Amino acid sequence: MQVTVTQSQTRKPKPDETNLGFGTIFTDHMFNMDYSVEKGWHNPRIEPYGPMALDPSTMVLHYGQAVFEGLKAYRMDQGGIQLFRPLDNFKRLNRSSKMLCIAGHDAAFALDALKQLLTLEKDWVPSQPGTSLYIRPTIVATDPYLGVRASFTYRFFIILSPVGAYYPEGFNPIKIMVSKDHVRAVRGGVGEAKTPGNYAASLLAGDKAHDEGYTQVLWLDGVEQKYVEEVGSMNIFFVIDDEIITPMLSGSILAGITRNSVIQLAEHWGMNVTERKISIDEVMQAQASGKLTEIFGSGTAAVVSPVGELKYGDQVIPIGDGSVGPVAQRLFDAIQDIQYGKIEDPMGWIEPVI
Length: 354
Ligand code: COI
Known about the structure:
Elements: E1 4-5, E2 29-36, E3 40-48, H1 59-63, E4 66-68, E5 71-75, E6 81-84, H2 86-99, H3 107-120, E7 132-141, E8 154-163, E9 174-178, H4 196-200, H5 203-211, E10 216-218, E11 235-240, E12 243-247, H6 257-268, E13 272-276, H7 280-288, E14 292-299, E15 303-312, E16 315-318, H8 326-339, E17 350-352
Parallel strand pairs: 1-3, 9-10, 9-15, 12-13
Antiparallel strand pairs: 2-3, 2-8, 4-7, 5-6, 5-7, 6-17, 7-8, 11-12, 11-14, 14-15, 15-16
Helix pairs in contact: 2-3
2-OXO-4-methylpentanoic acid binds next to loops.
C-alpha cells in the first residue's frame, strides 16, 4: 500500500521549546487509514491535522472500543531523528486490538507510515534537552450503530505532539497515593490493554489523590487489594536490599516497553532484577526496616520517574532521603542517552528516521 500525502496549505508557528508541557500542541499533519471488512485496512494517507467529523452514533463514542499507543521521536545532537523500540509499540497495539475485538494491522507498515509522517514533520521534533515529539497512534471503532457488538469499520490515526516532561515535577521525585477504595483492573479484564476505558476508570481515584496533594495513584490488585500493580501512567519498581523488584505481568498490568527496557538494562549491568508479586505490606515493612531505598516509575511519557513519598491509608512514608536515588538516576541517564543517541545503543533498540 502507498501512503498518499496531502500537504497543509498553512503551517502553524512552532512553540517555545523551553515551556512545552505535555500533550497540548499538535503538528501540521496526521496519518489516517480506514478499515472495512470488505477492503481490510485501506486508504493510508497523510493529511493536514484537524478535527474529525464523526456521526454522533459512532460506536467508539458510546462503548469505548478503541486502543492507543504512546512513543516518542528524539532529536539527536547531530540533528538526526530516531525512535525507541517503535515496532514494539505497534505490536502491543495489535495485542490490545485483539483484546478489544479490533481488526489487527501490519505493524511494519504502520512503522513505515509513521516514518513518512515524521519525515514530513521533522521540524516539529524539538531539540531542547528533555524534549521530544510524542507520537499517539490510535484505533477507534467507527460504525454508526448503537447496538453492542464489535464494529465492522475502524479508523487508525497517528497524531504528533512536541512535549517536555510529563509531570510538572520534571525528574524531581513525585508523591503517590495507594488507592484503597478503587481498583483499576482485574485479571481476565482489559487491564493489560492500552484502551481508553482503563484511563477513564482511573480518573476518580486520581482526582482524590490530587485533592490530597499526590501526583498519581498506585493501584493494588483488583481481587485482594494486596499486591502492587502499576501507577496507571507508569509501571513501578522498588529497590529493596539491592534487589530491583517490579510486579510480574499478571494480565491486569500494562506490559510497558520502558518497563522491559529497565529490566533488560539493569540485568545487562549485572543488577539483581526480579519480576514477582510484591505486596504493599512488604513495601511498608521494607521501608520500616530501612531496606527500601528507592521507588521509581517507568513509562514512555514519564521515562523513569522517582517517587519521593508514598501514602497508604493513614501512613505517609518518605522514600530514601527524598532525592533521586542512584538506581533511578542511572537508568534515567542511560535510557535517555540511548534515546537521544548520546551513547552507543547496546541493545538494538534504536530505529533511525532521518
Ligand atoms: C505513555 O507513557 O505514553 C502513556 O501512554 C501514558 C499516559 C500519557 C497515558
